[in-house]
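Thread: Modeling a multi-component assembly for a lab meeting

Hi all, long-time lurker, first post. My supervisor asked me to bring a structural picture of a complex we are working on to next week's group meeting, and I have zero experience with this. I have the sequence lines for every component (208 residues in total). Could someone generate the structure of the whole assembly? Inputs are pasted exactly as I received them:
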Amino acid sequence: MNEKNSLGLNKCFLDEDNPFKLFENWFDEAKKKEINDPNALALGTVGREGIPSVRMVLLKGFDKNGFVFYTNLNSQKGNEIKENPNASMCFHWKSLLRQIRIVGTLKQVDDKTADDYYNSRAYESRIGAWASKQSSILENRKQLLKALDDFRNKYKDKENVPRPKHWSGWNLKPSSIEFWLDGDNRIHERLKYILDKNNKWTKVILSP
Ligand SMILES: Cc1cc2nc3c(=O)[nH]c(=O)nc-3n(C[C@H](O)[C@H](O)[C@H](O)COP(=O)(O)O)c2cc1C
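Re: Modeling a multi-component assembly
Sure thing. I ran the full set together rather than chain by chain. Output:
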């Protein structure tokens, strides 16, 4: 018989009142077990038209204030977020048979945070952020390769490539975080944390 936590769930749910601590615990497990990109997540956004769209991004930071990823602010997702800051994230770790779902609102990170992360990236990635008008239509691949060359020429000093204004990070401040564990015969285990009106996290368990 598996060990259980006080809610009768598998002990991997711990007995945490703080969902960020449980996230950290599961994410640490994923870093050990997932073959690559344990920080990959599906990001769901909805623009002005109300049409949802989902794509993968990489988690580049998290703390009690939220979950951060970086992107081009003028991309499809960037424009949708500017129209509607509500968004959702979903992590799926196949090696652990676990999922985490987060709902919240997005805010741009401050310039210093974005600069620090941008400057930690490889030179070619920093050049790519300048050259790629992410999500816009290319006439042909050559157009992009030329833009890459142009920016390599413009920013020859690899230690000194400024961050483009159109490239930054978004922080998702969560209003709910759900942890899911695969169970036999689809009798899965689900624990949902919900932020109440007093800014306190409450926990419920959900039917699979
Ligand atoms: C595993 C994985 C990680 C990715 N990480 C990022 C990321 O951190 N930021 C980003 O802008 N695009 C990332 N992408 C590319 C996006 O999925 C997407 O193609 C791109 O951001 C354009 O999306 P949009 O047109 O909805 O704006 C990643 C793709 C994959 C498969």
